[in-house]
Structures are given as C-alpha cells and as structure tokens.
Design goal:
Largest sheet: none
Order of helices and strands: HHHHHHHHHHHH
Oligomer: single chain
Radius of gyration: 29 Å
Number of strands: 0
Strand content: under 5%
Number of helices: 12
C-alpha cells in the first residue's frame, strides 16, 4: 500500500528520533551499553531502508536529506575507530602496567635472575682476566669500551646529546623487542637474550673496571639504569609469559591461551617501551653531563627507589580491610 509523504514521516519519525537521541548521548556508539548498541544497529538498518523507500517514492529533498544525514552520522558513530585518548595512556601508566607486572611476578623474578646472574659472572670474569672478556666480545670492542670511559664528565654539545638520545631509543627498544618477541619460541628466545645481554653488560663493566675506569662507567649508567635495565627485564618476562601461555594451555588451544594473556603482555611491553624512552632521555642528556658525580649518584638512588615503589604499589586497589 502506498503512503503519502506525511503518513510516511508520521509513522517512521519516532524511530528516527530514538536513533538521534542515542547518537546524542555519545559521539561513538562503543561507549554505550550493549543493549543500546544493539538497538542503534537495528534502527540504523531501518533508517537505511527508509532512505531507499523515500528516494524510490520521490519524496521531497528535506526528508531525503534528513535520512541521509542520520544514516551518515550513525555509520560514522558505529564504525569510526576510537580516538586517541590521553586518559588511556594515563590508565596504562597509573594502573595497567604495574598491575600486569605484579600479576606476572614469577616471570619477572626469573627474568631478573637470568639477566643479573650472568651479568655478575661476566663482571667477575672480565675483572680477573682480559682474556675472558675477549672470549665473549671481540678485542677491538673491548678496547673501544675501555677508551670510551677513560674520560668522562665533561659533557657533550647539545647536538650530540640529541643525536645520542635518538640512538639510545633505537638501540634500547631493539634490545627489549628481541627479549620479548623471541618469547614466541616457547619462551626460549627470551631466556637466551636475557642471558646474552646480561653477560655482555657484565663483561663490559668488568673490562672497563679492570682498566681503571669503573667509576666513570657506573656514574654514567647509575641514573638511566633504573629504567633501562628494569625495562629489559620486564620485556624478557613478558616474552617468557607468552612462551608459557603457548606451553601450558590448559583446556584451550594455543591461540586461545595466548589471547587470554594478551592484555597483560600488551601492557607490560608498552610500559617497558615508555620506561626505555625515559631511559634514553636520561642517558642522552643527564648521564654524560658535567654534573658532579655525587649529585648523579644521589639522583640515581632516588630513581631506583621510585621505580621500585612504582612497580610494587602503583595501581593497587584500596585495602578490603578498610571496607565496612
């Protein structure tokens, strides 16, 4: 049965108004409750059908334009990507990242052991024997490290600081990415790179100390080490957690097991990346500066305590004991 334009508008306008009110509540529909999203999708299909009927019937442009605009608004609200939100970044830093680290504390502890113990071995071996250091690293590289820290504390020009900060971002994130991504090999890749990087760092420290420049080296790394070394450990822990999810799947498929762990893995690796950005800034501008060594050591102690307190306590829920 054919309807006049007025009858068509009168019959369909309540649905249009309902959809318009849903769009007015939130710019993007994903923020609405599930029932409201389902209702909006149903109304959107009806509006598209109404638009085709109005065009086929030759209704006036004001009706067609109204329906066209309503359909376009709904399509944008339904399918547009969520906008970048600073609130999401703050949520990651304030609660998501440290909470995920604590939930995976056993992997963090194992990663720390795999990183620190080879580092101590490398330090002790290179301190006692330069030949040991050369077995781990090439002789030219050992000599270069000894020379690099023979003079320290005079600062660099501003252009060099910026260039080195960019290099540190690239280098540090590359190390952390390898520690994490190779965890797909059932965690074995992450374990290898933690041991390798720990051993290499220890050998460098031991060789430079044996050459008489240890104070320069440790003064240099004291500040940014709180962020950089911790982030490498967390990246390796995330890789091992990923590997463990592929091994211990329970009653799920490997893919489902990995998906169940994906939230924590994402938060851990993103948090580690942010820590490495902070480390690169400190390493590029603060660590090589001519600021007195005691000031740098004092700042380093504060930074290590800050990182430890942040990972242990940030994002914790209020104690249930305080609830009535």
């Amino acid at each position: 049965m054919n309807h006049t334009q007025d009858e068509f508008v009168a019959a369909r306008k309540p649905a249009w108004d309902e959809l318009d009110s849903l769009l007015a509540k939130k710019h993007l529909l994903y923020k609405l409750p599930p029932t409201s999203i389902s209702r909006a999708a149903s109304l959107y299909r009806e509006v598209c059908s109404d638009l085709m009927r109005a065009r086929a019937a030759g209704y006036t442009s004001d009706v067609i334009d109204l329906l066209d605009a309503l359909a376009a608004r709904t399509c944008s609200a339904m399918y547009s990507a969520p906008p970048y939100r600073l609130a999401g970044l703050w949520e990651l830093v304030a609660t998501g990242f440290p909470s995920s680290v604590r939930r995976n504390a056993r992997f963090v502890a194992l990663a720390a052991a795999l990183f620190v113990l080879p580092g101590l071995l490398g330090f002790a071996g290179a301190l006692r024997s330069r030949g040991f250091a050369i077995q781990i690293m090439s002789e030219p590289m050992v000599a270069q490290m000894e020379k690099s820290y023979s003079e320290f504390g005079h600062g660099r020009d501003e252009g060099a600081d910026s260039m080195m900060a960019s290099f540190y971002v690239y280098n540090n994130i590359g190390i952390a990415f390898r520690c994490f991504a190779t965890g797909i090999l059932f965690g074995l890749g992450s374990m290898f790179f933690l041991v390798y990087n720990g051993l290499t760092i220890g050998v460098v420290a031991g060789a430079v100390t044996a050459a008489g420049h240890g104070r320069n080296l440790f003064t240099f790394i004291a500040g940014h080490g709180a962020f950089e070394l911790t982030a490498i450990v967390i990246s390796g822990a995330a890789g091992m957690a990923m590997g463990y999810a592929l091994v211990n799947t329970g009653q799920r498929t490997r893919w489902a097991s990995l998906r169940a762990q994906a939230g924590d893995l994402f938060r851990m690796i993103m948090g580690a990346a942010l820590m490495l950005l902070v480390a690169a800034f400190i390493e590029g501008f603060w660590s090589p500066s001519s600021i007195l060594a005691p000031v740098k050591w004092g700042a380093a102690v504060m930074l290590h305590l800050l990182v430890l307190a942040y990972l242990l306590f940030a994002g914790r829920s209020p104690s249930r004991g305080s609830q009535p």
